[in-house]
Amino acid sequence: MWCQNSILVFFLGIFHFASHAYDIDSDKVETSDFDVIVGGQTLNYKQDSTTHGISCTFTWQAQGGTMEQWVMKIGSSEDGKQLSCFVERESGTSYLFFMSFKLEVHGANVKAQHAVANGESGKELMDGKDFKLDRKLNKVEAGDKFDAHLIRVGVYAVKMEKQKEDL
User: Which pLDDT value is given to residue 25?
Assistant: First the structure.
């Protein structure tokens, strides 16, 4: 019984951390619409945010239909130390089949910390299987088990303190 209760407390603690670890201020989110065009070629959309000091680039290959309108959102916490970059289909549904995707965050002293992605019907995709987060290159991309369905992908990052140069 003790073991079961400990496991439950452990998972509740992880859920609490994941839901509160990134405090993005809804008043500090910049939004831009773009079209995800199909045809199998590699395409990308980039948004620069001088307010947050970062840029985000979404790269994809997709098939199915003609195109869909998607949204890129760049946000920060009130103090500007926590950042987010999300790409999503606001309707929550997509008829496209993604052959690949990649979301990159660029900026001075920015370090990717966590990524999330959702597939068909909002199904949470699994880090390490459906998608891979590369913290060194500040990007998240399709993993080996990705099943071509995507409605949302995002990266949470932090602004690192500038390193003082050695004298």
Answer: 75
